[in-house]
Amino acid sequence: MMVLFLNDISGSEVLLILVFVLMFFGSKSIPGLARTLGRTMRQIKDASSDLQDEIRKSGVDIKKDLNLKGLIEDTTRDIQQPLDQYVSDLDDAVSYQPPPRTQAPLPEDLVQSPLEKAQKVESKVDDSPIPESEAPEASK
Fold it and tell me: Taking the model in full, what pTM does it have?
């Protein structure tokens, strides 16, 4: 952070700042100001370091609590099981061998020819005349 600050300031600018500090604070108070400034910068650096350590520790704690590796393994297992079942079902379907077919006896209606069926229907029809009470009346 300090390096970036000094990169933007040239040597003559630093000299000018030091002259103004000397004139404004005096030669007796500059060592005390430098000590105070040094302590303050050290405290800020320590606080920043402590904060970074706490963030790292909490990150490790979160990783332990989440158990990402176990979670990933469980998820992988949950996804893999149905996929393995699908692969097994597909393998069974592809390698399926139907049992040998035996010729089942056909029903009588399927064995008869259409001519035989027509003769059978005609024989069932009764040629007796329709009684007059059931016959439709002709329009007069």
Answer: 0.37
Those residues whose C-beta lies under 8 Å from the C-beta of residue 22, and which sit 6 or more positions away, are: 30
The string of pLDDT tens digits covering residues 57-98 is: 988 888 777 777 888 888 999 999 999 999 898 888 888 777
Q: How far apart are CA 110 and CA 117, in angstroms?
A: 10
Sorted by sequence, the CB contacts under 8 Å of residue 33 that are 6+ apart come out as 21, 25
Task: For residues 20 and 31, give the distance between their C-alpha atoms in angstroms, rounded to a whole number.
Answer: 15
112: DSSP letter: S
Q: Which two tokens stand for residue 6?
A: 């000094």
Q: How far apart are CA 39 and CA 45, in angstroms?
A: 10
- Per the structure, the count of domains in the chain is 1
Structural domain for 47, as ranges: 29-94
Q: Tokens at residue 25, please? A: 């604070």
